[in-house]
Amino acid sequence: MQIDLKNLTIEKAHASLKSGEFTVTQLVNSYLEVIKEKNEEINAYREIYNDVLEQAKIAEEMFKNGTDTLMTGIPMALKDNMLFEGHIASASSLILENYKATYDSGIVKQLKKQGAVFLGRTNMDEFAMGSSTETSAFGNTKNPLDITRVPGGSSGGSVAAVAMNGALVSLGSDTGGSIRQPASYCGLVGLKPTYGAVSRFGIISMGSSLDQVGPFGKTVRDAEILFNAINDYDEKDSTSIKKENRLESQPLKKKIGIPREFLSTEGTDPEIIKNFNESCKKLEEAGYEIVDVSLPLIKYSLAVYYIISPAEVSSNLARYDGIRYGLHEDGANLYDVYTKSRGKGFGKEVRRRILLGTYILSHGYYDAYYNTAIKVRDAIKDELTKIFLEVDAIVTPTSPMMPFKFGEKSKDPLSMYLADLFSVPANIAGIPAISIPSGKNSEGLPFGFHIMAPFLREDILFTIGKDFEKHI
Ligand code: GLN
Prior knowledge:
Elements: H1 10-19, H2 24-42, E1 45-48, H3 52-65, E2 75-79, H4 106-113, E3 117-122, H5 156-163, E4 169-174, H6 180-185, E5 189-192, E6 212-217, H7 220-230, E7 255-258, H8 260-263, H9 270-285, E8 289-292, H10 301-316, H11 334-345, H12 348-360, H13 366-387, E9 393-397, H14 413-417, H15 424-429, E10 433-440, E11 446-452, H16 458-471
Parallel strand pairs: 2-3, 2-4, 7-8, 7-9
Antiparallel strand pairs: 1-3, 4-6, 5-6, 5-10, 9-11, 10-11
Helix pairs in contact: 2-3, 9-16, 10-12, 10-13
């Protein structure tokens, strides 16, 4: 049975499963074949779960009983930081290499109910720190569009799984851009939802005030369907937004803002700016008014992010003490156990962030760094909130640089951090943002167009995104 995986969408798959054109098992087997053929080279998946065919049978039952949903039988991938009971979740770190989840994360619980099929867990930057998937303790993931280049990060495995047709859709997590930047590098759609729209319960934390789980798909509609499937209140996540506080969609002003001064930041590739300007023209053709807006503070987002996120990393990762979870090294005393276990278990980038974060939070520096960053964060949020009274959305390129080659940035952390320039403001402000493919350059490398919308207004991203897709 030959299924056209390259052009398959969730709705097409659903229709075919429903009509009996193919079964869930047949669909799953088609993906497993691709994975068998391609994963050795691409290294998108760290592991294919051993119960995939059992999951497929459960989905088939749902079709038989008529309890199916759009996600029933849809083969998808999970990032290696998402807990799925009885399966390993390692955050691609040696310290959790053999850590088996003892419960389901909120998102897995919701998707299980809907009959989604989890094919496996995907490679990522260690504890989601990175923009290239090169900090994984388990090897690089290659960009399926050009295997000499990185797929982006930190959700590099999740994006590569879909880009190589080894999953129909997948989930990533985004703390500073880790869904949108890899989506842009591999020619896919990637959505970072509003902070609190999707449960963080059972997601291995990086920066708790910034982390958010979201979908990858080939189309805006696929991202929307997967987002709808996980967009729910979870009492186990104290930052989850209750149903009654969620917004109804409202009509659009059909007005979009470009933060010009921010775009002229040094270091943005001129061919990216050119593609961005062409993309804005397409939106004009689609009937949107495009205006320049002034957002003088968002350029500080990157600096704020690299204070707040390491601070949160240092406290979140304190739990890996060699005793409670994962890797344990014997030592002469307790301190020795800590240093040996953490020294062996954490990679270089993770250690750099823990050191930075501990310094930022230490006595005497807390006010100067952490508290100042929190104040600037609030000012950035206010600035964005005001602008959204005038425009529906704000657009930028997704990344200031094209997909780069392995090793090109990994020796210079600051140049790697710059990859997050346009994506971090959405995390700082907690607002939703999406990356949509916007064409390719002469070498066949993809561009990404980035749209940010007000708090809880994912609907705006989907509306503009679908209009954009039609005109590109
Ligand atoms: N690249 C950013 C970082 O290294 C973002 C990571 C993320 O979103 N998880 O921190």
